[in-house]
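Why do we care about 3D structure at all? Because function follows from shape, and shape follows, mostly, from sequence. That is the central idea of this module. The next example makes it concrete: a single protein chain, its amino acid sequence, and then its structure expressed as tokens.
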Amino acid sequence: MIRGYRPVARGTEFSLLLIPSLLAVIGLILIVLAPRNVVDWTWGEIWVSIAFSIVVLGISALFSLRGFQGDQLLLPITAMLSVIGLLMIQRLSPDLTRLGPDYAGLARNQMIYLAGGMGVLWIIGMLAGPLRIMRLLRDYKYLWMMLTILLQVSTFFIGQEVGEAKLWIRVGPVSIQPSEVVKVTLIVFLASYLDEKRDLIGSSWRLGRISLPPLPYLAPMGAIWVFALGVLVLLNDLGSALLLFGLFVIMLYVATGRLLYVSVALLSFLAACYVAWKFVDRIDIRVQNWIDPWAKDPYYTGYQQIQSDYALSAGGILGTGFGHGRPALIPQVHSDFIFSAIGEELGLLGTLAILALYLLLVVRGFIIALRARDGFVQLLAMGLSSIFAIQTLIIVGGVTRLIPLTGITLPFISFGGSSLMVNFVVIGLLLYLSSLPKRI
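And the structure:
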């Protein structure tokens, strides 16, 4: 027992966590055995899965000892998505390593990021209350606004260009993607500002016979949004720009309930997309790949999309099985196109199961928002949950060619340190918000 706390049983959470724990071990055994003709493996070959199982079950046990009263489904859903990502990276690592030394250690790094993310989640759940993190989030909204601006500006000046886009800031051996942090700081600012100005923003003022929105109160929020979005466009980070736009519209609608704001935002977005399509070469290439990747240059600009289509087609209903596909033919398969690798080796049923997990994750976040007593908590939970919804829609829609592809990660599954860590921060915050007093 932890001193000062009364343990509580979190049986639902612990029992559900047994499923991803078993999947981690069994899945990695299948990956190890796939290229072999004999059933021969050692415990040392699956230590990653064993370590993952110990970490997630240990976090649940510590939550019980702490007397934590938060949601019991968020952690199992997150663990299930994480283990699928871990297994896919483990499966891809040998093939990618043969393509180049830069991929060496991919699986090890993913496990390190996962362990670090789980640790951050646990710290937020354990210490958010004693550290009065809600006061920090609510009362210092302009600090979060300035942090958002600072992160974007710093990337513009000192960011490293990767694939024609400035996305990363390198600090010694560590690379950080500021846009991943920005999506959280922007949500915190919007939630605090909209909660404080909710009545004013939802009202209107008249100019003669014309009814106008309260522009003076929308201006600060619009300014930070336009700035963040503009810098992302200049940095060529179009996926994050689309994500921030979606979050802004959702937060504004949830706070005001006015379809006028959504309509104006969507119309302006469509106009901006048309202008970008006509004048930005990179966007024109992405649109062309969306319409027909074979049309211009199937061996260069359209190559990734074509290989992705082949992989999804080869998977069929049930998939080829772990280790029996050829997903390494897709460039950037471990990040932008990992959903294609899943579709090839787990099939249509596997991809539908993953989408169902994301749906459950988002729904749990929305339930936390609906049950919250405090307006700020409602907006914050809704915004944080929407991150996963929009991000999943953008990347899955791009990979399956429902929309033009934009470079963005699939939460908890794609390889990436910044993305994983920030996503675990979001889950930790949602867990803490779920432990606060509820309306029902």
